Amino acid sequence: MTATTNRPTTTPREDAAAGVVQGTAPTTRPRKPVLAASGGPAKRPSAAAHLSDADVEQLGKELDALRDRIIATRGASDAAYIRRVIRVQRTLEVAGRATLLLSRKKTAFVAGTAMLSVAKILENMEIGHNVLHGQWDWMRDPDIHSTTWEWDFVTPAAAWKHTHNDLHHTWTNVLGKDKDVGYSILRMDEDQPWHPGNLGNPLYNMILAPFFEWGIAIYDLELEAVKDGEKSKEDLRKDLKAMGRKVVRQFTKDYAATPLAAVPFGSGKQALLGTFTANAIRNVWAHSVIFCGHFPDGVDTFTEEEIEGETRGDWYIRQMLGSANISGSKLMHLMTGNLSHQIEHHCFPDLPSNRYHEVAVEMREICQRYGLPYTTGPLPKQVYQAWAKVFRLALPNRPRPLPKTTTRAVNAPVPPRRSALPMVASVG
Amino acid sequence: MTQFRALRRVASILTTPREPEDFLNLVNPLSSARQLRGVVTKVVRETADSTTIHFRPGRGWNPHAAGQWARIGVEIDGVRQWRSYSLSAAVGHDPAITVTAIGYVSTALARDTKVGDILFLDTPQGDFVLPEHPRPLLMLTAGSGLTPVMSMIRTLVPRRPDADVVLVHSARTRDEALFHDELLELADQFPGLTVRHWFTREEGARRLDLSDVTDLETLCPDWRERAAYACGPTDFLDAATELWLHDGDDATHTNLTIERFAPVLLEGSGGEGGLLTFEKSDKEVEAGGDVPLLEAGEDCGVVMPSGCRMGICRSCLVPLVAGRVRDLRTGEVHGDEGELIQTCVNAAAGPVHLDI
Prior knowledge:
heterodimer, B: Elongation Factor Tu (Ef-tu), domain 3, 4 domains, six-stranded antiparallel beta sheet, six-stranded mixed beta sheet, 17 strands, 21% helix, Riboflavin_synthase-like_b-brl (chain B), FAD (chain B), Oxidoreductase (chain B), flavoprotein (chain B), 2Fe-2S (chain B)
């Protein structure tokens, strides 16, 4: 096996120019890089520059072995775990909606909205995200399977599986490849060129947070790929249709059926407010957790050159350097869908989420032994850093940015590349 | 029924993207929109290593015909495993399977099943069933091959005064013979049933010899006049087929209906690759033992779903119809019928059929 470039063999633009009718032939998507069996990239990321090819190979083997150990011990207790979470989630969902029927009373409004919010968060994160990753496919239960699952989110599961599982998880933090870096609307890395529209960074992000599911839905349409000719207009039409159907169903449930059911109890308006609030709370929470995954200080981004010649070990390293964890209690891990174990999740996206805490113990030890940073922190700190970046990068880079090649203190907390700017930076 | 459907549709407006059954499942474990289920109602130990499991199926089950089988799913160590079992109960009763503890799944079913457990089901299938019109019958069974025939006997004998059934059943010992006492009681009570047990480790200590007609003539002299049903191990059935073909007259050999338990499996050990068949795409290709199924498929023009191409994203899952595959990451050879295979990291291990 050799490393390959990820250029499409035929460029779609040439096809279009040659008069090939769009939609008759499937548009060529860039093929995935095949990981190199040995060697390494021309230049390792600075935080891993001290590792030799042999070190990286050994690291890859250790992590493969760690994965195998978890897989070998998957069993009845893991299956019982996910079923328990699903049972709790569905009970909360039913109870929340039922309580909203009486939401004319303030206590019922608060209780109903709270229960529905928690249900939606669990459904989205610990259940939906992880089921769609195929973390529970090994149970071979068609009721809890990545191929049959649909979630309570406006973007259809199939579209999200493509952009998230396939594109984001393969190209983690590779600028120009991983569109999760800023979701095509935010400037989230110094190496992304600045343009005046970036002044709106904080504003865009503030709007994005409560409507996060819409951001994801639009993002999953891959408008940029359509513009670049990597995705056909026909495919876009199909995706839009699928999204439209999903939106209608989601809206009917939350904004028509639930309030209508509450009308006989004189609680129609309050129930509508309740479901809207629950969606907004889930969106803000998901937005916060996900921004903590790859944007806090200490998380690296990569160039396409840096991943050329990547071996399995290098791929693992990129996942480790490109992700940040959230520290906290068991409840915190549950409510973040164990994305608080982002590093472990990115190295092993299809291991059952309830086992990540176990992986984390070994992962930390491995990072320490190999002198690699392991970025983690409590939620408020990580959220603050992500937002600070949103504000900071609204403005052009300062004249002398810290060069990316600077060697870091091994396994030391990585200092922020720039001190946080005052929060009013974007004004003017 | 129409009312139920209308109600279900209204409920689904509130449960989308889940089905109403997903919520009903909170109170009724048989409720599922995707998977027929049954609850175990009675567990009867038949012999030292075989057990009859009675179950009540949920909505969607079709009543079985005597002699039919069903795919039964059971969760072992968190993983859903499927096997086919003949239904041993009489028609009109809740279904039951009789499982002998041989192999991973049957052993777990026979040893660990408790009343209240949930089984996953597929509807009854098979054409090993009683003839449409009354005829004298000969049942030729060995070991657990008795189970479909037991359903036929239980259905026919007590209800039809004109029944004329001879059962020749071969088992190792009296203790290991399934339904031994029940059969003798039935034979005692109903003149329409004659039971001939053959114990290979007791009288004569030899197997029932079907290589010529001697044993059969002794046990059932008018075997040529009867519609015969045979069920048992492969060699037993092969011998019976041979016997009916050569020693029957022209009319006789069409009289034999057989039921095989062991499917003809395409199997191979890891590493050597094999012939890859893409059933829906109607394509075949010889693939090496180190070539991912995904690449082999793409190379011969099959539209394969694909994603990360490194075994993480599961965009490439394709159901396995038959055969075994080798995980290129671990070298593990695996593959059950219907299992979803990650085609980007699995290669053929012997002949493989994929449902795409």
